[in-house]
Design goal:
This protein is of the alpha/beta class. The protein has 28 helices and 40 strands. The strands form 6 sheets. An 8-stranded mixed beta sheet has the order 1-2-3-4-5-6-8-7, with helices on both faces. It has a 7-stranded mixed beta sheet with strand order 11-12-10-9-13-14-15, with helices on both faces. β14, α10 and β15 form a beta-alpha-beta unit.
Length: 1013
Amino acid sequence: MQSASEQSEAADRPAPPASPEHAYPDHWEADVVLRDGGTARIRPITADDADRLVSFYEQVSDESKYYRFFAPYPRLSAKDVHRFTHHDFVDRVGLAATVGGEFIATVRYDRIDERGMPASGPADEAEVAFLVQDAHQGRGVASALLEHIAAVARERDIRRFAAEVLPANNKMIKVFTDAGYTQKRSFEDGSVRLHLDLEPTDRSLAVQRAREQRAEARSVQRLLTPRSVVVVGAGRAPGGVGRTVLRNLIGAGFTGRVHAVNAALTDGPAELDGIPAHPSVGAIGEPVDLAIVAVPAERVPEVVADCGEHGVRGLVVLSAGYAESGPAGRERQRQLVRQARSYGMRIIGPNAFGIINTSEDVRLNASLAPHMPAAGRIGLFTQSGAIGIALLAGLHRHGAGLSSFISAGNRADVSGNDFLQHWYDDPDTDVVLLYLESIGNPRKFTRLARRTAAVKPVVVVKGARHSGSAPPGHRVPVTRIPHATVSALLRQAGVIRVDTVTELVDAGLLLAAQPLPAGPRVAILGNSESLGLLTYDACLTEGLRPLRPLDLTTAAGPADFRDALAAALADETSDAVVVTAIPWVGENGATESGDGEVLAASLREAVASVPAPAKPVVVVHVEMGGLAEALAVATSTRPVSAGARTASTTARPATGGAAGADAGSERGAPTQAPSAPVLRTAVPAAPGTAAPAAPGRTDPTAPGTAAPETTDPAAVPPPDRQATIPAYPAAERAVRALAEAVRYAQWRRQAAEPGRVPEYEDIDEGGAAALIERVLGAGGDPDARGVTLGTADVGELLSRYGITVLPTLPAPTPDEAVAAARRLGYPVALKTTAPHLRHRPDLGGVRLDLATEEQLRTAYAEVTEVLGKPEELQPVVQAMVPRGVDTLVRSAIDPAVGAVLSFGLSGAASELLGDTAHRLVPATDRDAAELVRSIRTAPLLFGWRGSAPVDTPALEELLLRVSRLVDDHPEVVAVSLEPVVVAPGGLSVLGATVRLAPPPPRTDLGPRRLPSY
């Protein structure tokens, strides 16, 4: 016999139909997240589904049946069942949405001709119809099915859908009209006739992504805000993972119901830590939203089945022994995900550390962290439990609070992308901190990060950068580009990339507490000239523009600091202020006690005295006795509104901390304030200021403000809250965090007015497509590795996009070299094109400015004598072009991140130093301008040391044309233009290679789907 879970899984993956010519299309199977955060599986309907179809139809109301068939239709006939379950997967296709192996909705299309009669190809229209079980209406099932059936239809060369709907069936009409496709609508014979063009549009893509965001955010919200939680695997004796989590849930003051499950409790009702305990989830007898699973891996499947069959919505699997343990564990992990999704549940883990939600309405600590962190405005995601512990400890020491915390372990299901969807419009989160060891869907991550970064900072530290493989248990696409390139592309998307966990905490503290700087100008003041100079040097190193440090001298007191800080905040010549402080030394040479507290009070007073302090302030202190403790105390200089939702507005002291830290309250000792170098003080709003808003808040009325796909979080006025002035024990740490804020603020300002992808009238997209089709089709089944174009085809393809390659003529003998020079006209260049000498003029394989036949013959003889025979060197002759700067332009498609456009100077030095800039395709005019200016050798293009500036507008146009070529034709998997000589007037492309291949699959296009297992 099969278990219930095995039967469910077997039911959800039917056997392929017998017809060999149209095999079962298993790539149409997909797991999707629905509007309410639950999941469903979409798959083709087969002949094996007859009983499921009949059962499904019996649960549909008479009204829904009437809307589907336009007449009373109480039951399906045997003929109906056969017709609705037998498909050829080309002209007749049916898809079902399933939960627990049972149908909850169906959709089908039948190809028709212009008369509306059944047809086959080349007819490109199909009639489509839906039926959704009443209990699942309103969950977005029909919208998800429409996305998938439309993708199937496009794959089968169907370009239009026709649908006939009764006028009273408003829900179904709305599904069609809200999809974003181009459509026509008419009223015929008492019904509404709809025609949808299935070609994706900008609006249909926007609708699809907005629905994706709402659904995935809701699925995370369900995990973070359960009304009831059960810990499965809570042992009878104290200790153990399950019992620890149970204790942490109780200790955090979870506002919902808590239950415990221990399979050994077979003697009736029991209690663990005062909590009702049961032998199974089914024995609880009331709904449970979230299950924390802490049992051995071999027992997890029965727990998942128990949870799924009794309506549990989500799982946090702490159990280890999955993909991190080897191939057998990897297969066990796949089975876990499939089983949970068959019940509509999402999973955090396995091998997870847990989740935390500090909201006063929830107070959820479903993790192994023994203490509940203080409530705050930071959302924290990690893939490592150990790093999660370190980050919790670091933020706790600095007095920073969290809105939510997730340590996802192997992230087999729920990932950082899902939490980006949630935090994007979460009103309780202002800053997002991510520790990532791998990125499962880099294209999607980049898209989500860019959108989130437009409204609140996203700070990322990436582990496993140089190992060449993902950590055990992480399933990620293979990438061929170096880590530095990935970092550059993330920065292009607005992500703040840092290298260490310490930098992650430092940047998070500043961004969560301070307004964004309006520019790079930094005022420095303090009582140590040396510390001020160190800060000044650090600013220059980070690309900031520090003002001359203001030395208050060692005799300065707290009042001097207060006055100087107030003046700096009011000074319009600076955009940020760094306060440096060393201990005061008494007459006897000893440092004086108590001055740290006084200085902290003075700094708070200075900030409060400025009507609208719209610039960030950070403190650098060196062994300042008492300052750290004083800065850690939460104080406010004005009343806080009752509606505030942060830790600073509550009377309850923070007891949070890092895992492993001692808890004073548990030992009966009073709760200690964290020894955090943080100053908290209320900062009033800045009406009318032109400076950037605080992180996470934007001005919805500002021209060009990036509009989110759903509701604008900035449209909601922020609650009153206390800001913090972060303090750092080293100038370098403070300035590095400040520099990241400056760069991010600049990106935000630019993102508010994005660049554009220009149109060029001379581009022949159709001609290029025909050439590509001819080349790829010439060899029959194209090689997946691709084909490198010949010289003539390269020139023709590039010319279709307005790119001219300077002709080269082969010169296998001296006489043929002379003949080529006569055709081209003197002066000429002689070049070797052998692979080992290509683009290596330093090896002597290039001779320039050959003005006569004699010079050409002499150069030919010298080159062949030194470097080898002509047949080995493959010499060519090329006309000379105006002198300029040699550059290179490249584009390639990486499986992980997509098409990348690259630019740098040509030559061994630039290649050795990695001085190349990168942008994602399609590039905008702003991207092209930044590419040219972002390499370290860019001054050579702009008149370095008195040289003539080159034609950078022509260079930017070339970059944009290459970007258009690669974006328009995904079959162009690699382009290299080298060298491109950029002169003061114009440029010349001297060499070009192009490689074509079948386009790699796109993970960020098509209908919504969860990663497959």
